[in-house]
Amino acid sequence: MKSIFGVSAVSVAALAASALGAAAQEKATFMTNWLAQAEHGGYYQAVADGSYKACGLDVTIQQGGPQVAGRPLLLAGNIDFYMGGNMQQAFDAVAQNIPLRVVAASFQKEPQVVMSHPGEGLDTWEDLPKAEQYIIGDEGAQSFLLWMAQEYGFDLAKRVPYTFNPAPFIANKKSIQQGYVTSEPYAVEKEGGFVPNQFLLADYGYDTYSTTIETMQKTIDERPAVVQCFVDGSAKGWYSYLYGDNKAANEMIKKDNPDITDEQIAFSISQMKKFGIVDSGDTEKFGIGAMTDERIQSFYDKMVKAKVLPAGIDIKKSYTLDFVNKGVGLDLKK
Question: Within a 10 A sphere around the Cβ of 5, how many other Cβ atoms?
Fold first, then answer.
């Protein structure tokens, strides 16, 4: 994108970020979309190790939760950045003429998995459609399950609601269940005494970005240096959280969410690394937070084909690449 002076918006943001870093700390608030956990670790790390402060931001993290509606707070200007789910919400915002933009994708892969019992004839992705029942929540039934049915022949009639209790799945060995790779497999292993098969949807074509950083177009227009600093600081925070000393960040997470355990945090970090949730694919060249037009278009096309989303949405309005793909933080990877 060019300004009237022929200088790219990226260059303007970079120059402004340099000036911001030299000035007094500017306050910014980031809200997560759930209770504090390892899946938010990079942001906490960037606060703990000073990555945000190094470029001029004093960042406050507000945790979300089951009773917290974060996106309306973003729209109202009460917070500066929000942790989105995947690109579907950003596409919906465009359809509703909401000037919200994704400025980075902290997760290269949606952490959504389908689990099955080992040794029950459901040991490959191709086996899964023949399961007796699919334990899937309402949101999943209206999104990725429609894609699974269209692309792989899953039977929508076999879907039963997921109530965030693993007991029905544990009891029925011929069932499959949705979950986050960082969470539900841990619960099943603890409560059921076995390690379930785990099939990451992203590895079978569900190619949305996830755990996005959202902000308003007004913030991009008026405070590009703040946006650049937050994106860069978050990338550095994620590298340090995954590959460095993350003790201080984990203490912050446990302070915000006293119910989380060290064992759960360690499991989640291990799974994020194992499955390449944060750092894989394009991040190896462009750095954590990377996005491409091709990936975003691919996901939108699949959602249209599966009748999850209508055709005709101008998805270029849902995101910007001005603040990513610069290799920020690659030097921190061990």
Answer: 6
Percent helix, strand, coil in the chain, to 5, is 45, 15, 35
φ and ψ at residue 303, rounded to 5 degrees: -70, -35
| Tens-place pLDDT, residues 57-109 | 999 999 998 888 888 999 999 999 999 999 999 999 999 999 999 999 999 99
Q: How far apart are CA 227 and CA 330, in angstroms?
A: 19
d(CA 73, CA 82): 9
Tokens 């619960």 sit on residue: 187
| Interval 207-249: pLDDT, tens | 999 999 999 999 999 999 999 999 999 999 999 999 999 999 9
CA–CA dist 276, 109 (Å, integer): 7
Strand 26-31 to 175-180 pairing: unpaired
Query: How many Å apart are CA 256 and CA 101, to the nearest integer?
Result: 27
Nearest to 227, CA basis, from 6, 7, 12: 12
Structure tokens at 30: 């980031």
**The two domains 9-109+208-332 and 112-204 share their CATH topology (first three levels equal):** yes
What CATH architecture applies to the domain 9-109+208-332? 3-Layer(aba) Sandwich (3.40)
Q: What is the pTM of this model?
A: 0.91
Architecture of the domain whose range is 112-204:
3-Layer(aba) Sandwich (3.40)
- Name the nearest CA neighbour of 179 among 195, 158, 201: 201
- Beta strands 175-180 and 112-116, pairing class: antiparallel
Max Cα distance, the chain (Å): 66
pLDDT digits (tens, 9 = 90+) for 284-301: 999 999 999 999 999 999
Burial 199-231 (b: 16+ CB within 10 A, else e): bbbbeeebbbbbbbbbbbeebbeebbbbbbbbb
